């Protein structure tokens, strides 16, 4: 390969690396530090091997940045699902077609940060549609007495709206806390959090949400600006690395030329010695001539040996440096793997109850359904909701509510089999998956859970408090996991409407 071809190949590789590096999200302190280290090593004249070893160390940092991006995206996805749940759980009749379209948009775009503002706008439209739908329903269904005494009816609607707004405020404050913005925006974020916490007027909510969308757009722009800056720096460093690679190639080529030169020189000197021997007139002149030629050959060999020793020393140093970098990279990789595993476990675990959370459920249920349908083995699912949980919070405070949320899973575990799976789905709602369990057996277990929770000793300030749960149950048929969940969820609401503290079963055969 010629020098020109080598340079063209390296330039093409540099462009390819630059373009594929668009997958990275710059503006990360550790990644910026790594880039500075590359620049520093190049300025010191480090060879291509050393620079490559440093670049290899950047890979775990890119993985870390990508994992952080995915974690933020998962948090945003869960926030949107929580916002939908808030409407469902507070008596808001959400238009099903619009809700399905919104959930489909979440599934398609939750990982794409530029789509986040449009998703929030869709949720705002869903709220407005829900309120309009409920207003129409109330107007149609209101009895004569309620229509005559209109002042008594709005109070309940207003209370429900305030409950919804309170939950939405709490969820959006969590989203703000997870938003990656420079410190210059700390004051603005703090003010918006205070506004969310204090504002009780539903009419102001669109304006607040618009401001949140603007902050998300700033975060997107800031990420892109940081990424552009990072890529420009990376291009400069890759250009320098290109020069180092070309110099290394030329050095290697020079060494090859030295070997060829040694061979040519030796052949020439041997030939000259042979010619001199033939032309020598006497023994003394022949000895002198041979000594001269041998001295020249010895000098040539000494120079070549000196060059080879220098090259060997340089190679030994490069190999030693590479071994050191590889060892450090292995340690960094091991540390990063452990850190990623810990972060993944944290992302899949509910902090209050230490149960697998909704994200863990989503990752688990699809393969379970696929295996069940493929193998013909039964799979049952129960949705368990704590009755009158809001009253516990309102009467005794959130600490008491948290205590209930920790107590109920302990009681549920007393009944579950080793293969059963328990998740905190959100709020006061838990999901139980019964692999390999037919509906009749799952129903017996669900009844045992209901009784176990009902008899659980729970006291607040020495006063006994009754805690019960309502449970909806279904067994998987030829359907997707969303329909499966929906059937169990429908039975949960039937249990609520039937007076709570009940187990309702979806039985397709009846």
Automatic annotation (TrEMBL):
GO terms for biological process: cell adhesion involved in single-species biofilm formation; negative regulation of bacterial-type flagellum-dependent cell motility. Its cofactor is Mg(2+). Its EC number is 2.7.7.65. Gene3D superfamilies: 3.30.70.270. One of its GO terms (molecular function) is diguanylate cyclase activity. It catalyses: 2 GTP = 3',3'-c-di-GMP + 2 diphosphate. It is an enzyme of class 2 (transferase). GO terms for cellular component: plasma membrane. Residues 377-508 form the GGDEF domain. SUPFAM superfamilies: Nucleotide cyclase. This is diguanylate cyclase. It comes from Marinomonas pollencensis.
